[in-house]
Amino acid sequence: MSHSPNIVTVTAANFHTIVIEGSYQRPVLVDFWADWCAPCRMLMPILSKLAEQYGGRFLLAKVDTEAEQALAVQFGIRSLPTVQLFRDGQAIDQFMGALPEHQVREFLDRHIPRASDGLLQQAKAAMSGGDLAAARALIDRARTEDPDNKRLPLMEIQFLASSGEIAKALEAIDTLPLEFVKDPEVAALRSRLQFARVIEGAPSESELNDRLQADPRDSEARYQLAAHQVLRGDYEGALEHLLELVKRDRTYGDDAGRKGMLAVFDLLGSDNALVARYRSRMMSILY
User: Which of 39, 59, 75, 111 is 20 to 30 A from residue 87's alpha carbon, by CA?
Assistant: First the structure.
């Protein structure tokens, strides 16, 4: 039995305390194994090594499924080894089989905060507060201390956007690794950048409102006004204008109204109530 504080054997008696409750404090990686399972014996030293190398950023919990068959049934374990990651009381991801070390690292890095993540969060807060010099220093420090942090390129793009270099930021976001393609944060950032580009050199909101009052068919004014509203957080107002653009002028900007609505949906996320409501309204117009 390991004497490491980062590795523990769990049973039905302590599973809830160590895994479920413990996962609110730090991620818990549960290794469901058995002594007769050769792949389990291959994977176990890899997991133990990583538990030490990650220095307590996750807890490795080992479950002997021969001794704890009820736990294996409870968590739907059908093949060994099965490794599940728990966070905030729930199993949020898993893998099966004896993966090589680099693949296990990739699995862990998708879910487990790195030491430099705190610096990047501070940089993000500094950008939000307009302190670009502090943000630059924090990003540079994170790069020096942890150059392998995969969130660094995304933070660099956010810095470009905060610095007003929208075109460069949009170019950079298209060069992100494939693993970012489905990242909701990347989709949201891309949407913000697209709307920021729309209002570069555009009139103020008050001027655009005046233009729409004078001519409700002014598609450019409506679209630019929606972009302003998105960037200051008035998503419902923006969606109303974009929906009206879908109704009035599908030819403007190569269907900019519909594409703009989809960009707002990416920004808000699929679980947002506004997304459900306006997606339904958009579909009723289109079909």
Answer: 39
Map tokens 């950079």 to a residue.
172
pLDDT value of residue 89: 94
How many Cα atoms occupy the beta-carbon half-sphere of 202 within 13 Å? 22
DSSP calls for 146-194: -TT-TTHHHHHHHHHHHTT-HHHHHHHHTTS-GGGTT-HHHHHHHHHHH
- CATH superfamily of this structure's domain 205-286: Tetratricopeptide repeat domain (1.25.40.10)
Query: Where in the chain is CATH 1.25.40.10?
Result: 205-286
pTM: 0.66
- Residue range(s) in the chain whose domain bears CATH number 3.40.30.10: 7-109
| Mean pLDDT of each 10-residue bin along the chain, 287 residues long | 84 96 95 96 96 92 96 94 96 95 91 87 93 96 90 93 94 88 86 95 96 97 98 96 96 96 93 94 93
CATH architecture of 7-109: 3-Layer(aba) Sandwich (3.40)
DSSP-assigned letters across all residues of the chain: ----TTEEE--TTTHIIIIIIGGGTS-EEEEEE-TT-HHHHHHHHHHHHHHHHTTTSSEEEEEETTT-HHHHHHTT--SSSEEEEEETTEEEEEEES---HHHHHHHHHTTS--TTHHHHHHHHHHHHTT-HHHHHHHHHHHHHH-TT-TTHHHHHHHHHHHTT-HHHHHHHHTTS-GGGTT-HHHHHHHHHHHHHHHTTTPPPHHHHHHHHHH-TT-HHHHHHHHHHHHHTT-HHHHHHHHHHHHHH-TTTTTTHHHHHHHHHHHHH-TT-HHHHHHHHHHHHHH-
What positions carry a catalytic annotation? 37, 40
